Amino acid sequence: MNGKATRKRPFQWRALVALLLLGAGSLLSISGIVLFLAPSGRVAKSIEWRLLGLDKDQWEALHTAFGIVFLILFGFHLKYNWRSILAYARKKLAGALRLRAELVWATVLTLSLALIAIFDLPPMRQVMALGEGMTDYWERWGKAHGYYVASEEEAHEGIDEAETGGRGWGKLTVEALAEEKGVSLEAALAQLAAAGVEARPEDNLLTLSGKSGISPSELAALVGPGTP
């Protein structure tokens, strides 16, 4: 080594941020597509919908987490590269002023797309209809495969909306149901088992409804202090 100590390369924070931005952006795009094609929460829980081993709640958490991470990383990206970004922007702006027709068209198209999305105009209307159609597809798929898919009314009936913010029985887990009914978790599980419904504490009533064919409100009625 000719008597010279090997110098350790300094850690490249800019490169780290750039690579993390690429990863976060990719996962944000993938999770966004998945959630667009996924069924509604009511249907997803009823048919135990999963993709790549993750349920809809987990995909939503993934999308939210990487959305926040992306914004934070974008801030660091601006911090590390603001001089070069500003110089690049000035150069491009000077060039854009010479491309007046292109600049006008780019502005018009951007504003048009925003208005189309805001006012639900074609083709955005058809895109959104496709998303709603996917929910209908998954609901039909669930029923065709033997799941009981609770309706919106069944999923949300039974609990005082003033106390729960509109949350119905369907979204409660067995553990939360036991607390709501004022019984122990063990008693709630035993009462459900006595009715032929095998459940775990973390199971919500929509999932149990899909498996058992019993509506969420009927499942809730099986649990309580006066229930044998």
Please tell me about this protein's structure.
- The chain is mainly alpha-helical and 228 residues long.
- Helices cover 68% and strands 2% of the residues.
- The chain has eleven helices and two strands; from the N terminus they run ααββααααααααα.
- Strands 1-2 form a two-stranded antiparallel sheet.
- Helix 1 crosses helix 3 (56-97) and helix 8 (174-181) crosses helix 9.
- The longest helix has 42 residues, at 56-97.
Features:
single chain; 228 residues; mainly alpha; 2 domains; two-stranded antiparallel ribbon; 11 helices; 2 strands
Arithmetic mean pLDDT: 85
User: Which shape, going by the Cα principal axes?
Assistant: elongated
Listing every helix as H and every strand as E from the N terminus to the C terminus, the arrangement reads: HHEEHHHHHHHHH
Poorly predicted runs of 5 or more residues: 161-165
Strand order of the largest sheet: 1-2
The percent of residues in helical segments reads 55-70%
Short description:
By secondary structure, the chain is mainly alpha-helical. It is built from 11 helices and 2 strands, in the order H-H-E-E-H-H-H-H-H-H-H-H-H.
Write the layout of secondary structure elements.
Elements: H1 13-37, H2 41-46, E1 50-51, E2 54-55, H3 56-97, H4 100-118, H5 124-144, H6 152-156, H7 161-164, H8 174-181, H9 185-194, H10 205-212, H11 216-221
Antiparallel strand pairs: 1-2
